[in-house]
Each structure stands twice: as structure tokens, then as C-alpha cells.
UniProtKB/TrEMBL annotation:
Stored PANTHER family: ACETYLTRANSFERASE, ACETYLTRANSFERASE YPEA
Protein name (Swiss-Prot/TrEMBL): GNAT family N-acetyltransferase
Listed GO MF terms: acyltransferase activity
Keyword tags: Acyltransferase, Transferase
UniProt keyword RNA-binding present: no
CDD domains, A to Z: NAT_SF (cd04301)
Stored InterPro entries: Acyl_CoA_acyltransferase (IPR016181), GNAT_dom (IPR000182), YpeA/RimI_acetyltransf (IPR050680)
Highest taxon of source: Bacteria
EC code(s) of this entry: 2.3.-.-
The N-acetyltransferase domain, residue ranges: 1-177
Length: 177
């Protein structure tokens, strides 16, 4: 089942993030590291999860839950407002969503779980009046590129320079309503 995260689920969210950061492609898929994530205090995870549950601060997180209640996948939508700059310092020209933190546990890949997560995230974005949703993907993350294309995203022609990786310009992919 895919649904919005609940504020009280912060321990499960805290456990899911390091699992994602241990993935073999985590170094090209996330702007976070396992070592940093596991050192964050409980207060960080409580606040982060509560905000994502309420949509506070322009972030809404969706999770995939198994029948026994385990969280096995996630995606978050960050609302970027026109006239601001994004996390990479690039000006935001129009109000849009940005998908981040995409993860499906390896044993659930290929099951439709990622598709369900994306459908929930995009449905929420469209309800919020966002006419465009984007994501950034590492050019060598072929598994992710293939999935994003299948989900309807196309390369916009924009590339983003990642912090700490001066030689890597990663493609932006978008879907518009």
C-alpha cells in the first residue's frame, strides 16, 4: 500500500533512509551519506517526518508499506516556488514540484511499487496545482533513467551541477500536466 507518511512513523522513516543510503548506487542517487544519516538525532527525524506528513514547508512524503507494516519505499515532493532558488542555487522560474529521495527496497523492485509511489506523488502535485514536476538523475544511473522514462519523464535539456562533484552535470527530467 502506498500512502502519505504519518508523523508518528519517524522511527520507520529513520530506519528506511540508511537502508536507501546503503544501496549500491546511493553515491550517485542521493546527496546524503549513510554516515551522516545515522548520526542525526531523533529530533531531526521527528521534525522531518512530521513536516512531510503535514506538507509543511512545501514537502510531502509518500511511503510504500507492506501488509505487516514495514516501510519498503519512499518518494518526497518538494514544492519549489517561482522566484526562489533551488537546492543547487538555480533560479526557479515557475512553481513546480521536485521529486527527491526515491527509493524502493531491492526485494520490491519490479513489483510496481515505484510506479505506485510516483502515481501518489504526482497525484498530490497535480492537486496542489503544480503543472510541472522534475527530478535530477545521475546520467549513469541507467535503472533509474529507464524507470523515470517509463513513468513519463523526459529530459528537459537542463543539467545541474551537483555540490562536491564539479565535473558532474546531471540531467533534469520533467513531466508536465
Amino acid at each position: 500500500m502506498v500512502r502519505a507518511v504519518r508523523a508518528g512513523e519517524w522511527p520507520a522513516v529513520r530506519a528506511l533512509r540508511p537502508a536507501a543510503l546503503r544501496d549500491p548506487v546511493a553515491d550517485i542517487a542521493f546527496l546524503d551519506t549513510y554516515e551522516v544519516a545515522v548520526m542525526r538525532p531523533d529530533a531531526y527525524w521527528r521534525e522531518r517526518t512530521a513536516n512531510a506528513a503535514e506538507g509543511a514547508g512545501g514537502v510531502r512524503q509518500f511511503v510504500a508499506e507492506t501488509a505487516d507494516g514495514a516501510l519498503v519505499g519512499t518518494v518526497a515532493v518538494v514544492v519549489e516556488e517561482a522566484g526562489t532558488t533551488d537546492w543547487a542555487g538555480v533560479p526557479v522560474e515557475r512553481r513546480q514540484g521536485h521529486l527527491v529521495g526515491v527509493y524502493a527496497a531491492p526485494e520490491h523492485r519490479g513489483s510496481g511499487l515505484s510506479t505506485a509511489l510516483f502515481e501518489a506523488a504526482l497525484e498530490w502535485a497535480w492537486r496542489e496545482g503544480l503543472g510541472r514536476v522534475r527530478l535530477i538523475v545521475h546520467a549513469e544511473n541507467t535503472r533509474a533513467l529507464g524507470f523515470y522514462r517509463k513513468a513519463g519523464f523526459t529530459e528537459s535539456g537542463v543539467t545541474v551541477l551537483l555540490e562536491g562533484k564539479p565535473d558532474e552535470h546531471e540531467p533534469e527530467m520533467v513531466v508536465e500536466r
